[in-house]
Amino acid sequence: MNDDTKITQRASAKLPRGFGDRGPAEIAATEKMLAAIKESYELYGFEAVETPFIEFTDALGKFLPDLDRPNEGVFSFKDDDESWLSLRYDLTAPLARFVAENFDRLPKPYRSYRAGYVFRNEKPGPGRFRQFMQFDADTVGSASVAADAEMCMMAADTLERLGVKRGDYVIKVNNRKILDGVLEAIGLSGEANAARRLIVLRAIDKLDKFGPEGVKLLLGPGRKDESGDFTKGAGLDAGQQEFVVGLIDPQKAWEDHIASIDIRLADSEIGQEGRTELEQIAELISQAGYDDGRIRIDPSVVRGLEYYTGPVFEAELTFEIDGEDGKPIRFGSVGGGGRYDGLVGRFRGENIPATGFSIGVSRLYSALKAVRSPIVSAKPQQGPVVVLALDKGELPRYQKFVSALREAGIRAELYLGQSGMNAQLKYADKRGSICAVIQGSNERERDEVAIRDLALGAELAGSSKDRADYLELRAKAQFAVPESGLVAAVQEVLARH
Q1: For the chain, what is the domain count?
Q2: Which residue ranges make up the annotated binding site for L-histidine?
Q3: Looking at the domain assignment, is residue 187 inside a domain?
């Protein structure tokens, strides 16, 4: 085969797994969601800041709890100066770098919010993406648990502003210090037990999904799921398993849970610190009137990232919908956060107290869409007015019409393809246009333009021709005006819709 007959192989037109495209409807709905979240965060006194997608890998740190891919988790590459750079995997680690770099000029406490995409180099799956959007708010420089309580209250307010009804969500609160006390009590302190501690925390996090008996299997020898896949356990003995499960029962009343901590973690200083902080948060929530089921203490909340040092919280949707197979689907967690007093200190050599909350915008969008929430029913804006190009020799004249519409603040475009009139009108329909401007030779001789109301035209096409209002509809669906009346006529049509 000579060079002239070689066939160039086509590139594959498909996305990598774990990524997705977005169309106009989803973009419009997401922008509406972001505006609502922004209003809620600003109501609490937070101000905007933005950090880049890429940071030095060392600045991000390695906090993703992914034992299966210990050297992965983030998308990384080398710069031309041999420095390792990474795509951010959340919005908190970059904020810690920003605060440390600008520490002296920022007010303390520093309250900020930011939104954007984050990236995880993880195995994708149902509902698990490698690129997704988050919207965070953080308070840096306050050690008070009032800052943590405020995050929980703001989370509740934000979900309601987004259209999630009271009773369809709960903000669950726990404290990592209590979990550290539990790990200490069962003998898993020290660096040598780091891997087993992570398995225990992962097991606790599965309480909602697998129940107490399933958690015991994950704490002990391991668990085989329905497909036959086996998850290795933490290797705890029966007594240790009972000790852990006895402290994470979310069905216990708050008072009973406190009593259980006092008994089981009586000798744990860090565990008692966690208990005291939870009591203080509960009192603040009660005084603010949020103890009506919107926010509750749940000892099974873990949160995956390893930089949390105190209170942790999770925003969970409690309603169910029917899936495509008829089985109920529960979306579960759509946001969370907690206290991370050591993260900023990585750059400054001293602990700087901080706490934050993050909404998973992409996941929450899917949930709100499933229940047809009004906030994600936002339609993309109408398509532009399309000026048809029926005579290629008259393009300057058509362009003058487009310019006149734009000068009046009307979105407009000149058809730039090669098709005939019918195809041009179909193009306008696909663009979501309400109105088209037509000038053929007959209209041009009279210095007129025809205005077609595409929405009325569609209604007319679907109507019975013996209806009394047929002629009136037809007259409105397309009519001629002098060229000088173009803008006013288009404005009239757009105002109808």
Answers
A1: 2
A2: 90-92, 120, 134, 138, 303, 307-308
A3: yes
Model pTM above 0.70: yes
Q: Under DSSP, is residue 423 helix (H, G, I), strand (E, B) or coil?
A: helix
Q: Which two tokens stand for residue 381?
A: 């804006």
Give binding residues as ranges: 90-92, 120, 134, 138, 303, 307-308
Q: Is 328 found in the same domain as 254? A: yes
Tell me which residue has tokens 């933005």. Answer: 50
> Would you state the pLDDT for residue 111?
97
Positive or negative: CA dihedral 452, 454, 459, 461: positive
Residue 71 and residue 161 in one domain: yes
Whether 315 and 431 share a structural domain: no
Question: 71 pLDDT band (50/70/90 cuts)?
Answer: very low
Residue of 97, 78, 84, 95 whose CA lies nearest to 56: 84
482-487: long-range contacts at Cβ-Cβ below 8 A with a sequence spacing of 24 or more? Answer: 482/447, 482/448, 483/401, 483/447, 483/448, 483/449, 486/401, 486/404, 486/405, 486/437, 486/449, 486/451, 487/404, 487/405, 487/408, 487/410
**379-to-25, 28, 32, 107, 383 alpha-carbon distances in Å:** 6, 6, 10, 40, 11
The enclosing domain of 395 has a CATH number of 3.40.50.800
Give domain status of residue 9, yes or no: no
**Sheet containing 84-87, strands listed edge to edge, beginning at the edge strand earlier in sequence:** 54-56, 84-87, 76-78
Residues 266, 400 share a domain: no
* In a shared domain, residues 411 and 276: no
Do 344 and 461 lie in a common domain? no
Closest CA to 204 of 314, 340, 317: 314
- Residue 328 predicted with pLDDT over 80: no
Domain match, 80 and 132 both: yes
401 in a domain, yes or no? yes
Domain that holds residue 422: 385-496
Q: Is the dihedral of CA 444, 446, 447, 452 positive or negative?
A: negative
CATH number of the CATH domain containing 67 = 3.30.930.10
More confident residue, 217 or 330: 217
Convert the pLDDT of each residue in 385-444 to its tens digit.
Answer: 999 999 989 999 999 999 999 999 999 999 999 999 999 999 999 998 999 999 999 999
- How far, in Å, CA of 111 to CA of 151, rounded? 11
> Peptide bond before 109: cis, by omega within 30 degrees of 0?
yes
**Any idea which of 1-5, 29-33, 370-374 has the lowest mean pLDDT?**
1-5
> Does the residue 236 lie in any domain?
yes
